[in-house]
Design goal:
This protein is of the alpha/beta class. Among the domains are: 6-18 and 541-680, Barwin-like endoglucanases, CATH 2.40.40.20; 226-360, Dimethylsulfoxide Reductase, domain 2 (3-Layer(aba) Sandwich), CATH 3.40.228.10. 27% of the residues lie in helices and 19% in strands. It contains 32 helices and 42 strands. Strands 6-5-17-16-15-7-8 form a 7-stranded mixed β-sheet, with helices on both faces. A hairpin with a 5-residue loop joins strand 35 and strand 36 (839-841). Helix 10 (288-298) packs parallel to helix 13. It is globular and about 85 Å long.
Length: 984
């Protein structure tokens, strides 16, 4: 089988001089003088060199002293050092997720998925892992602002009473999506008093709602069961990315792991879902609709209105061949089609008809939103602006968000808000809307307040707080209670009282306690509804746009911008582009060549009269004649990260976004004669062969047909002791260790298997590792030098055609080698091997020579060039895991398989009735968070464990096996399932 070439960027593919120079530099730029006034590393070593001759380095750094006071009365059931876990729930733009929160002595430190909750099944995504940092965000509002001056909550309550309750003008509430039954009950009471309520989300599913309303004649939400489908077609639907749910990722991965599904993707931008496709068709996003019309015809959708309205789209030869093969595959049975939320309503209506014709596994649930709420949030927002200008609304209460910034630019909402007599904003932090408000009230984090949420499937969950509000803040329930004159009620009394009234007093206390324990109610608020597609409700085909497009997409980590102050999410690399700390104008190589643009060159994007400047970034696989820009950037982050050398991160592109062009718009693109450097994490740390090796194949993959013909295709090149060395392999160092082999047959021996068939590249493992192991953000300037401290590197490889390649994702952390080359070269034995097979690090012994990193062929060790924890806000320090050392400057750090979790599990197993079950349940943070279940950890000496079973599979292989490193982490080779009719 011919091995293809894998590459991570054009510089690597072409072996440019800059890339070759970067390979020669092991650690990038050396440490420069600290902006904090600390001495340089060289200067420090020079100052202490005399002391080193007569003393120990351990005495050179004095740890700061912290004094603590004992409890005068310890809380019930609280044991110091033993974390507690509580079930709770929250949502993002109306998408509910069930969570378990780990708390240390009253401090929430880590979020996990609730394994008993159907929305998570125990997994989370990268965004959800980052939510814990928002609780301790130093930029949060800490006190109410009345006239932009600090005030108290009592003064805020008095202001609301005088300016809203007792005033005679019209009142309105502008809210983010909030699927809370108790909050909706309060909304109904306000509407009964004449208060107008508007719901708006800048990234929403309004088009889907309109399309399903038109086709199904009912207000429904579609929930495709992707795990039950044999063939899936995604029409610009990133259901494995932030557009989907954790449950969808889990179900897709389960079918993928069993090699029973095939995924087709038709899209413009290279999405996370597109990187996992067996076949991906590049089309401009406005051309996807034409594909949908042609597919409906090819599948024989027999609806008179569709036949009458169907246009004749001009599909390319490649698109027609793709459509013919896809239609036949869908017809064969088990087919399912999904439409992306950026697609117009008519596409969603067509997909409803297509899925009905296919008898696809799709459930439809009644929308939790009130029946009288408009389907289109932007249209409702336009009505609000009109009412304000007409004087019908004098007082407005805004519940969260930053609508002055995120509303469609043509509405000029900011100008309208400036005309209000009274504007109250419940805000997380200073923003454009808060600057216009007469009263700004800090909003409580979801871990500080009570609430309730109902998912799209009807699962009702209680949001249980874990900590009292850290600042003077209110929840949405509390603010609405003041509007209703119920200010004496707290959010706990409101939420609990709502369900007590529904259920009745008898037995309620016991039921309530069980709901809190489980994180959800056993009964659903509603079940799936029967739905029959009929007609298009008057929807018409859209007219394609001539010329280039600018397309607005959600950021995988900042979403619509609500997490832009979360520096750890800012530093997480984009799963496809691998950029951090910035958005960019993403374009295909062909588009860049036509414009005469190179990477990191600024371009101007003009939509109507709106103009922004962005750096260009060339990404293979993007649709031609399109430029993709991520929303949610442009925040001022001055002093948020000590080593960030600029006050603004990225560019705000909301000014380009209008009501009629919320997904994409015609754009005029002009190159500018200036550069803007971007921080991309895959410019370095390449596993370069060296020693006259042939190219090292870190990724091993085959088609399903190749795998069936040769199930052990991933095995060549693996060296086993006592067996002949495979022919053609260069062995360096020799097969036998110079220290002899240790006997690892006794006791617990830890190992890991990562399934490349299930891994989607979503970064959940990376962010979980950051939260668990106290990994700091270092800032853009340091990332550009290759100094980010992530213990897991999510490698992204392109393979195939330069313009339209496929992608493979591969998580890369310390491989826990049994014959680890890092251990041999450490002069102070700071890195050693444990009897249980772990490559351990003693931080207080490390003197920072970096020999170990130089000797690591995987380049997975991270060096602390600065003391990034120094002078960090005390609030941010509260998130730290007390079971993990906070590293000082000048030490090497890396993945430990979460040894703190291993030791905690071993302690529990000593007294357990079934010790093996406890040992089997030990899971590092990366494996616990993975929504796809791609990471499996356990005791490889236990032949009945999951990890042992996976290591016996024919797809199992280890990296750089010819070096005789004997890693404890192995991978299951990737198997693609292409359609033979589309091969070649």
């Amino acid at each position: 089988m011919t091995r293809p070439q894998y590459w991570r960027g054009y510089a690597e593919r072409e072996a440019s001089p800059e890339f070759q120079a970067a390979l020669e530099s092991e650690f990038g730029e050396e440490a420069s003088p600290s902006t904090l006034g600390e001495p340089t590393r060289r200067g420090f070593l020079g100052l202490v060199s005399a002391a080193l001759a007569g003393g120990s380095l351990a005495g050179c750094v004095r740890r700061p002293e912290q004094r603590i006071m004992p409890y005068s009365k310890a809380p019930e059931d609280l044991l110091p050092g033993v974390p507690q876990r509580y079930a709770t729930a929250t949502h993002l733009a109306g998408e509910v997720i069930g969570l378990l929160v780990e708390s240390h002595e009253g401090r929430p430190t880590k979020l996990e998925g609730n394994p008993d909750h159907p929305t998570s099944g125990g997994g989370t995504n990268a965004l959800q892992q980052g939510w814990i940092f928002d609780l301790y965000d130093p930029t949060r509002l800490t006190t109410p602002l009345k006239g932009h001056k600090p005030a108290t909550l009592d003064e805020a309550a008095a202001f609301i009473k005088a300016q809203i309750i007792e005033a005679k003008g019209g009142v309105a509430v502008l809210s983010e999506a909030a699927p809370s039954p108790s909050l909706m009950a309060m909304r109904a009471r306000l509407e009964a008093k004449g208060v107008r309520w508007i719901t708006y989300e800048p990234i929403n599913r309004d088009a889907e709602a309109e399309g399903l309303q038109a086709a199904l004649k009912a207000r429904l939400i579609a929930r495709p069961r992707v795990g039950a489908a044999r063939v899936i077609l995604s029409l610009d639907a990133d259901f494995l990315g932030v557009e989907g749910t954790v449950a969808q990722t889990r179900d897709w991965a389960a079918s993928r792991r069993a090699l029973k599904s095939r995924l087709y993707v038709v899209e413009g931008r290279y999405s996370l879902t597109g990187t996992n496709a067996d076949h991906r068709l590049r089309l401009r996003s406005d051309a996807v609709e034409g594909y949908a019309w042609a597919l409906a015809s090819a599948l024989g959708v027999d609806d008179p209105e569709i036949k009458a309205a169907a246009p004749k789209p001009a599909l390319s030869v490649a698109a027609q061949a793709n459509l013919k093969a896809v239609a036949a595959d869908l017809k064969a049975g088990g087919g399912l089609v999904l439409a992306g939320r950026r697609q117009p309503p008519v596409v969603h209506a067509l997909v409803a008809h297509i899925n009905q014709a296919l008898k696809a596994p799709v459930d439809y649930f009644p929308a939790a939103a009130p029946v009288n709420e408009p389907l289109n949030g932007a249209a409702a927002l336009a009505g609000l602006v009109k009412a304000i200008k007409a004087g019908e609304i004098e007082a407005l209460v805004i519940l969260g968000g930053d609508p002055a910034r995120t509303a469609p630019a043509d509405l000029k909402l900011g100008e309208a808000l400036g005309q209000l007599k009274t504007l109250v904003h419940l805000a997380d932090r200073p923003c454009a809307t808060a600057r216009l408000a007469h009263l700004t009230i800090p909003r409580s984090h979801f871990l500080e307040a009570w609430s309730d949420w109902v998912s799209a499937e009807g699962v009702v969950s209680i949001q249980q707080p874990l900590v009292a509000p850290l600042h003077a803040s209110w929840s949405a329930h509390t603010l609405l209670a003041h509007l209703l004159g119920d200010e004496e009620k707290g959010c706990h009394a409101i939420v609990r009282g709502h369900y007590r009234a529904l259920r009745g007093a008898l037995g309620f206390h016991r039921a309530w306690r069980k709901w809190l324990h489980d994180g959800l109610m056993p009964e659903r608020a509603f079940e799936a509804s029967p739905a029959v597609a009929s007609g298009l409700g008057g929807l018409k085909a859209s007219t394609p746009i001539e010329g280039p497009l600018v397309e607005f997409v959600e950021d995988p980590h900042l979403f619509d911008g609500r997490f832009e102050h979360n520096v750890l999410l800012q530093e997480a690399p984009d799963p496809v582009t691998k950029l951090t700390w910035d958005n960019a104008a993403l374009m295909s190589p062909k588009t860049a060549k036509a414009l005469g643009v190179i990477a990191e060159q600024r371009v101007s994007l003009k939509v109507g009269e709106a103009l922004v400047h962005l750096p260009a970034w060339i990404v293979p696989g993007m649709a031609d004649e399109s430029v993709f820009v991520a929303l949610g950037y442009g925040a001022a982050l001055k002093n948020a990260v000590e080593y960030a050398q600029q006050s603004q991160v990225g560019v705000d592109v909301y000014p380009l976004r209008a009501t009629a062009g919320a997904s994409w718009a015609a754009v005029k693109i002009e190159p500018l004669d200036e550069a803007y450097p971007l921080a991309c994490v895959q410019r370095y740390a390449r596993l370069d062969p060296g020693y006259d090796y042939p190219e090292r194949h870190n990724v091993r993959e085959a088609t399903l047909a190749e795998y069936q013909a040769n199930p052990t295709f991933a095995k060549p090149g693996i060296i086993k002791h006592g067996e002949p060395i495979p022919k053609g392999e260069v062995i360096h160092p020799p097969e036998a260790s110079i220290f002899g082999d240790h006997d690892y047959s006794k006791g617990n021996q830890w190992g890991m298997v990562i399934d490349l068939n299930a891994c989607t590249g979503c970064n959940a493992c990376l962010m979980a590792c950051v939260a668990e192991n106290n990994i700091p953000a270092v800032g853009k300037a340091e990332v550009m030098k290759g100094r980010e401290l992530h213990w897991i590197r999510m490698d992204r490889y392109f393979v195939g055609d330069e313009e339209d390649p496929q992608v493979v994702h591969q998580p890369m952390a310390c491989q826990q080698c049994e014959t680890a080359p890092c251990e041999n070269v450490c002069p102070v034995a700071a890195t050693t091997h444990s009897p249980e097979g772990l490559n351990d690090m003693a931080y207080n012994r490390c003197i920072g020579t970096r020999y170990c990193s130089n000797n690591c062929p995987f380049k997975v060790r991270r060096f602390n060039f600065y003391n990034y924890a120094k002078d960090q806000a005390e609030l941010a320090q509260m998130q730290r895991n007390p079971n993990v050392t906070v590293r000082f400057r000048g030490v090497m750090e890396k993945c430990t398989y979460c040894v703190q979790r291993i030791n905690a599990g071993k302690r529990l197993a000593r007294d357990a009735a079934d010790p093996r079950a406890i040992i089997e349940s030990i899971t590092p943070a990366c494996g616990q968070a993975c929504p796809a279940g791609a990471i499996v950890f356990g005791d490889i000496n236990d032949k009945k464990s999951r990890v042992s079973a996976l290591k016996q599979q024919p797809l199992d292989y280890t990296l750089l096996s010819s070096l005789n490193l004997q890693p404890r982490t192995s991978y299951l080779a990737k198997v693609r399932n292409p359609n033979p009719k589309l091969e070649g």
